[in-house]
């Protein structure tokens, strides 16, 4: 038995340590728990199996992203930004680059715009696949998990052919992208989309009208539209309550204004609706990607702006101006004018925003990530209180809290 | 590639104080080989999952990479039932107390795998929040670098851990046998 | 439509603000800290800014007043954003909490408090969320060194 003096300190201060009544139990679910995605601690007061109230503690993955941002150049931050929402890493890259490009007054090339849109939808597919797969696995549907993770693996290998990495890509650049598509990439993309459709069809067949699934997910974890907006919910959770709010439709950015797509909404705001909205959004993403593959224009990937885009290697090796330019951009970093900008994209979790403040030098003064997962934790008690202990598992899975983004 | 650290069990001397007959040593060696073989093919991992490496952990557990071929598929989310603590992802100082508690609750024999650059050395998070390498808190047996590591690298790490388990000493009765 | 809404809001609120400008498509209002709560109330009730996006702070050390608290709001009806800024001094970094108006303010103000030390008057739950009990200091302030670690578990090597 470990003596009291050598026990490790408790890193959190719970909101309540004793129940309001004598016959309730306080349990701590997490932070190392199979069913809390990532690492979150839920301190719950239970009356038998019913959850009376919860106190959520995140921050177990706080890695000091914003502090790191103040000591690296604008370019060197792109790998850090990737690791925020690590399931859809490309969207973070592009949102951050969009914020800095807004500050610098850069308009990206048409090819880059369409490619960023295509890859954002690809990342959305990967994120929703992971969320649905993990959620289904926790309910016991292991087969559906294996199907979806297999499709996701094809996508990872495909993105590795483009960017060099499977999970966190560092592919966006301020002013454009790291490199253009390799030959045959779009052909393989179409093959993957066909395989995706086949596997999704199987998952629909296994799960949609499954009595057990419906019993566990219908009317569980419900939130109303009014509560959702008050607690800052955006993205799938807000759409599942019935409000058709989508930044791609409301404030179009990149190439979304030219695409034809629907915004799926739910009816009750419960777990089943969130699952179904994700499934429908994946289908819409595939439809958008097919349109984008047709529309992709030829042309350069990067803007011809020497403040942030590196010159061609032949020029760097032959001209002194290009050499100095390359050196300055790498060592000092691109220098946006002093000021601030906020850019927000529709990530799979909701509104992902980057607020960047520059003092005119190559190192940011401040970069703040408006993380949807963090804000969603503030209102999660609305979806957890009053339900059963076992309902915490699918509800928390359907919120899709990604630790890197929540804790930054 | 992957790197390994000497297992703590390797410091048990082969010749205990006093004389042992060569038959006894033969028995000990064979017993170690048998237990090493059995333990290496039935690893019960405790996936202490925190960050982005979780994506590769999910990928390596499913097809086509599949840790089940190595006997290391069934995760045991109770430290009492697990023998491999896979530290997957960055450990912050807030998480460190939890990690140490879980490690202390595991029973011998136990091994620790530092999965990913953040668990190995802190990765590129060298600041107030992240622990610069999990081996500052718990002894690590195998380090798998990568950010995140490819599934093949994880499998290589598991195989090297299996070699390490196969050739270590497995005392079951007392420190000599 | 977008520009029209922002112009309307700017005209109505500029008298109460120190400055009002539209930058990169967002209306930016700089206010005195005391004027913040009534302006937010008007934004929510009169102009339909129902989604409270974010609150954070900027540390302008060594300038004084040192901190600038920044709020972002979004209107789901008009699809526009507003940014509010207020400078507070290091000696009294206090602003009003938005918890009575928006549910999401609770969790976001906790983060701003633990990172910068901004006190939100009216929010009684300012426990650390991303940091841990026993952490001394406010890490995102410019005078907190990046690699000052405060370990909870003793190191074995």
Features of the shown structure:
heterotrimer, B: 177 residues, alpha/beta, Rossmann fold, five-stranded mixed beta sheet, C: 157 residues, Beta Polymerase, domain 2, two-stranded parallel sheet, 3 helices, elongated
Describe the fold and architecture.
Chain A has 408 residues and is mainly alpha-helical. In chain A, 47% of the residues lie in helices and 12% in strands. Chain A has a single domain (65-407), classed as Cytochrome-c3 Hydrogenase, chain B, CATH 1.10.645.10. Chain A starts with 24 loop residues before the first strand and ends with a helix. Chain B has five helices and five strands, in the order βαβαβαβαβα. In chain B, α2 links the parallel β2 (45-49) and β3 (84-88). The mean pLDDT of chain B is 86. With 157 residues, chain C is an alpha/beta fold. In chain C, the strands form two sheets. In chain C, strands 1-2-5-4-3 form a five-stranded mixed beta sheet. The model of chain C has no long low-confidence stretch (mean pLDDT 89). Classes of the chains: A mainly alpha (408), B alpha/beta (177), C alpha/beta (157). At the A-C interface, α1, α8, β6, β7 and β8 of A face β3, β4 and α3 of C.
CATH architecture of the domain at 43-72 and 81-167 in chain B: 3-Layer(aba) Sandwich
The shape of chain B, in one word, is: globular
The sequence of SSEs of chain A as H and E is EEEHHHHHEEHHHHHHHHEEEHHHH
Distance between the termini of chain A: 36 Å
Radius of gyration of chain B using CA atoms only:
17 Å
Mean pLDDT of chain B: 86
The beta-strand count of chain A equals 8
Describe how the helices and strands are arranged:
The complex is a heterotrimer of chains A (408), B (177) and C (157).
Chain A: E1 25-29, E2 41-47, E3 50-57, H1 65-69, H2 78-82, H3 89-104, H4 110-139, H5 142-163, E4 172-173, E5 176-177, H6 185-207, H7 211-217, H8 225-230, H9 236-240, H10 247-250, H11 271-295, H12 313-318, H13 320-331, E6 339-347, E7 350-358, E8 366-370, H14 372-379, H15 381-384, H16 392-399, H17 403-407
Antiparallel strand pairs in A: 1-2, 2-3, 4-5, 6-7, 7-8
Helix pairs in contact in A: 3-4, 4-5, 4-11, 4-16, 5-6, 6-11
Chain B: E1 3-4, H1 22-40, E2 45-49, H2 53-61, E3 84-88, H3 93-105, E4 111-115, H4 117-121, E5 142-144, H5 151-167
Parallel strand pairs in B: 2-3, 3-4, 4-5
Antiparallel strand pairs in B: 1-5
Chain C: H1 2-13, E1 19-23, E2 26-31, H2 36-45, E3 51-59, E4 67-75, E5 80-88, E6 94-96, H3 105-116, E7 119-121
Parallel strand pairs in C: 2-5, 6-7
Antiparallel strand pairs in C: 1-2, 3-4, 4-5
């Amino acid at each position: 038995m470990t003596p009291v003096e050598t026990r490790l300190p408790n890193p959190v201060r719970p909101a309540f340590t004793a129940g309001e009544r004598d016959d309730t139990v306080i349990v701590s679910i997490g932070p190392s728990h199979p069913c809390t995605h990532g690492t979150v601690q839920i301190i719950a007061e239970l009356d038998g199996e019913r959850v009376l109230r919860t106190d959520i503690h995140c921050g177990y993955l706080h890695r000091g992203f914003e502090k790191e941002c103040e000591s690296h150049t604008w370019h060197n931050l792109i790998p850090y930004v990737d690791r925020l929402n690590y399931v859809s890493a490309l969207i973070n890259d592009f949102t951050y680059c969009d914020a800095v490009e807004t500050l610098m007054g850069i308009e990206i090339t048409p090819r880059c715009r369409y490619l960023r849109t295509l890859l954002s939808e690809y990342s959305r597919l990967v994120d929703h696949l992971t969320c649905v797969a993990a959620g289904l696995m926790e309910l016991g549907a292991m087969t559906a998990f294996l199907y979806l993770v297999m499709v996701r693996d094809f996508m990872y290998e495909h993105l590795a052919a483009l960017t060099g990495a499977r999970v966190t890509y560092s592919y966006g650049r301020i002013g454009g992208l790291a490199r253009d598509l390799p030959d045959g990439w779009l052909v393989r993309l179409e093959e993957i989309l066909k395989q995706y459709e086949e596997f999704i069809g199987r998952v629909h067949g296994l799960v949609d009208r499954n009595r057990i699934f419906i019993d566990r997910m219908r009317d569980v974890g419900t939130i109303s539209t009014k509560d959702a907006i008050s607690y800052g919910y955006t993205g799938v959770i807000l759409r599942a309550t019935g409000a058709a709010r989508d930044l791609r439709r409301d404030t179009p950015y990149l190439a979304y204004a030219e695409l034809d797509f629907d915004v799926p909404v739910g009816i009750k705001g419960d777990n089943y609706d969130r699952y179904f909205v994700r499934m429908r959004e994946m289908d819409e993403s595939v439809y958008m990607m097919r349109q984008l593959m047709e529309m992709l224009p030829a042309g350069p990937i990067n803007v011809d702006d020497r403040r942030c885009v590196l010159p061609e290697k032949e020029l760097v090796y032959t001209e002194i101006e290009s050499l100095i330019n390359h050196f300055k951009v790498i060592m000092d970093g691109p220098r946006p004018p002093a000021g601030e900008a906020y850019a927000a994209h529709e990530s799979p979790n909701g509104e992902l925003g980057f607020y960047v403040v520059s003092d005119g030098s190559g190192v940011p003064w401040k970069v703040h990530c408006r993380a949807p997962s963090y804000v969603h934790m503030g209102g999660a008690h609305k979806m957890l209180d009053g339900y059963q202990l076992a309902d915490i598992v699918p509800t928390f899975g359907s919120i899709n809290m990604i630790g890197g983004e929540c804790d930054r | 590639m992957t790197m390994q650290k000497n297992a703590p069990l390797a410091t048990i001397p082969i010749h205990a104080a006093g004389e042992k007959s060569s038959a006894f040593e033969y028995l000990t060696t064979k017993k170690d080989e048998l237990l090493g073989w059995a333990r290496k093919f039935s690893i019960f991992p405790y996936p202490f999952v925190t960050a982005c490496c979780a994506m590769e952990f999910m990928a390596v557990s499913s097809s086509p990479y599949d840790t089940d071929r190595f006997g290391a598929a069934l995760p045991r989310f109770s430290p009492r039932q697990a023998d491999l603590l896979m530290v997957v992802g960055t450990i912050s100082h807030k998480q460190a107390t939890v990690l140490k508690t879980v490690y202390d609750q595991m029973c011998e024999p136990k091994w620790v795998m530092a999965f990913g650059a953040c668990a190995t050395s802190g990765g590129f998070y060298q600041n107030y929040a992240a622990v610069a390498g999990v081996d500052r808190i718990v002894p690590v047996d195998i380090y798998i670098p990568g950010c995140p590591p490819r599934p093949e690298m994880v499998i290589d790490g598991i195989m090297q851990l299996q070699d390490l388990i196969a050739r270590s000493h497995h005392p079951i009765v007392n420190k000599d046998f | 439509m977008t520009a029209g809404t922002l112009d309307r809001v700017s005209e109505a609120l500029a008298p109460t603000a120190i400055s009002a400008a539209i930058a990169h498509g967002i209306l930016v209002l700089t206010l005195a800290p005391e004027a913040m709560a009534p302006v937010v109330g008007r934004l929510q009730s009169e102009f339909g800014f129902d989604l409270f996006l974010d609150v954070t702070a900027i540390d302008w050390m060594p300038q004084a007043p040192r901190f600038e608290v920044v709020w972002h709001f979004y209107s789901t009806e008009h699809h526009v954003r507003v940014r509010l800024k207020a400078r507070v001094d290091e000696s009294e970094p206090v602003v009003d909490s938005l918890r009575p108006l928006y549910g999401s303010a609770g969790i976001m103000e906790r983060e701003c408090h633990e990172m910068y030390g901004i006190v939100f008057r009216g929010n009684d739950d300012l426990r650390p969320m991303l940091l841990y009990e026993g952490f001394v200091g406010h890490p995102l302030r410019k005078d907190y060194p990046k690699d000052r670690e405060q370990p909870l578990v003793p190191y074995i090597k």
